[in-house]
Design a protein that fits this description.
The protein is built from 22 helices and 11 strands. The protein has 492 residues and is an alpha/beta fold. The structure holds D-mannonic acid.
Length: 492
């Protein structure tokens, strides 16, 4: 049976379905970037919230790219309903139909309609999952990148922008002119201080557009920082088949995820907020220690397994972490390099947190591909791993575990194959530049580190470059990365 509003009653015997009247749901949240993660996280919490009777907080999805058309078409076809398959380590699969998305717009079709939707007084929050790369800042200087041609386009065409900053500026301008309170801008990306970052980038753009408006934004708009967490692999054809075979439901684009879910949010909102705390989210005065812990351990841990594992020939996170060498390497990286840079987190036992990460990574039902983890490494590593490396360099701490990951990244970008010569599927906005810089390694061993927009001044750090040089020389002689991993472990 097709997943559709009219079929929900019949489907409810096999799985959880929205226990609220979707016709009564108003759009209080406009969300930009409806991918798997939004659908397993914010939309999941919001579905639970709607079930408590708070019907003002439905979600209208927005896609800013032509590539979002498929998601919009698929969801529209099924009245914006989708299945969330929660996969437990013991093989148990729970399936719930999510009803919190109630509309979806593509900005490429009608930019004005998107601006109007954000400016509508019912909209209280514009939330974002635009990926680490979507914030348009220089990874080393942190400055907004006005050299991006889309930014230039948006400055010249304020009523038909391409990027999020153009939309937010146009919609906030409209609200201000109408005498309305602004909406909250709520980032849900894995960027340290994601709210502060969004604010800084939006203000840089808005100042160029309209300095007075920028002052109003600075004074009136709230940008809560948040830590978001739920491992959400890419949906596969097998998930679609499983859904049909096990639950008898035809869903064009379900989402799968792990059971664990966490959302820690700073309680700062411009115009009211959903009571997400009633459905498991946590509101705190300062999210810094939580986000640093999560990004430095979970996301960086993923990158460690992703890059080293890809060269070794592993395909999934659970596959990599079942390899004892990788499990030990990961734990040592966490203990020796990541933990020393973390602050105390009230109420959290870091050792237990690290144990739980290894357990989550080991979930054999999840099959989170290393290709997903390594996707856009050029936007991820500067936020997940390089800050830890820098802090350890400054304090004289341990750096070998992270350094080998960077050497592996160079090899991966240069050769594009694993140690057996099998091609790797590399997707990165900077792929050509990474490939070119890495390709210079045999003439200039530090060539990869000269990508200034990623590594900045790291190339000046002798203790780092000498170790890197040693590792890269060995790796190019013998791509069996496990030999080098053992060497790092032995020297710990
Ligand atoms: C992953 C994240 O993209 C990545 O590299 O580390 O998507 C991770 O799975 C999520 O942040 C989990 O909350």
């Amino acid at each position: 049976m097709k997943l559709k509003q009219e079929n929900l009653k019949s489907l409810s015997a096999q799985m959880g379905t929205p226990a609220y009247d979707r016709n009564q749901v108003k759009v209080g949240i406009v969300h930009v970037g409806v991918g798997g993660f939004h659908r397993s996280h914010e939309a999941y919490y919001t579905d639970k919230l709607l079930a408590t009777g708070s019907l003002d907080w439905g979600i209208c999805g927005i896609g800013l790219r032509e590539a979002d058309r498929k998601m919009r078409d698929t969801l529209k076809e099924q009245d914006y309903l989708y299945s969330l398959l929660v996969k437990h380590p013991d093989g148990k699969v729970e399936n719930h139909v999510m009803g919190s998305l109630v509309d979806f717009m593509l900005s490429v079709d009608d930019p004005r309609a998107v601006i109007d939707r954000m400016a509508n007084p019912e909209t209280k929050i514009v939330s974002l999952t635009i990926t680490e790369g979507g914030y348009n800042f220089h990874p080393v200087t942190g400055a907004f990148r006005f050299d991006n041609p889309d930014v230039q386009h948006d400055l010249a065409n304020p009523d038909k922008p391409r990027l999020i900053f153009g939309y937010l500026t146009a919609a906030l301008q409209k609200r201000r002119a109408a005498g309305l309170a602004p909406f909250t801008v709520q980032s849900c990306d894995n960027v340290p201080h994601n709210g502060d970052m969004t604010k800084r980038m939006l203000l840089a753009f808005a100042r160029r557009q309209d300095a007075e408006l920028a002052e109003w934004i600075e004074a009136e708009v709230r940008f809560p920082n948040a830590m978001v967490d739920r491992i959400t692999p890419v949906t596969t054809p097998a998930d679609i088949e499983l859904l049909e075979a096990k639950f008898g439901v035809i869903d064009g684009w379900p989402v799968t995820c792990e059971p664990f879910c966490q959302w820690v949010i700073e309680d700062q909102f411009s115009d009211g907020r959903p009571a997400w705390e009633n459905v498991g989210a946590q509101f705190v005065p300062d999210v810094t220690p939580y986000e640093k812990m999560k990004i430095s351990l979970l996301n960086a841990g993923h990158s460690v397994l992703g890059l080293l594992g890809s060269i070794q020939g592993h395909e999934t996170i659970d596959g990599a972490v079942r390899d004892p060498l990788f499990a030990a390497y990961l734990r040592n990286f966490m203990d020796l390099e990541a933990t020393p840079v973390l602050d105390e987190v009230e109420g959290i036992d870091l050792d237990a947190y690290k144990d739980s990460l290894i357990e989550r990574f080991s979930n054999p039902s999840i099959k989170d591909s290393l290709a997903r983890i390594c996707l856009e490494s050029s936007a991820k590593l500067p936020k997940f791993l390089l800050p830890t490396l820098r802090e350890n360099l400054a304090s004289g701490g341990h750096i070998a575990y992270a350094t080998l990951v960077i050497a592996a990244w160079c090899y991966y970008s240069d050769k594009g194959v694993n140690r057996h010569g099998v091609a790797l599927d590399i997707v990165d906005d900077m792929k050509a530049e990474l490939h070119q810089a890495a390709g210079g390694t045999s003439e200039d061993v530090l060539s990869f580190l000269r990508i200034e927009s990623i590594f900045g001044e790291l190339i000046e750090e002798r203790s780092f470059t000498s170790l890197y040089e040693e590792m890269i020389t060995d790796l190019y002689k013998n791509p069996d990365i496990s030999v080098l991993m053992r060497k790092v472990q032995d020297q710990k």
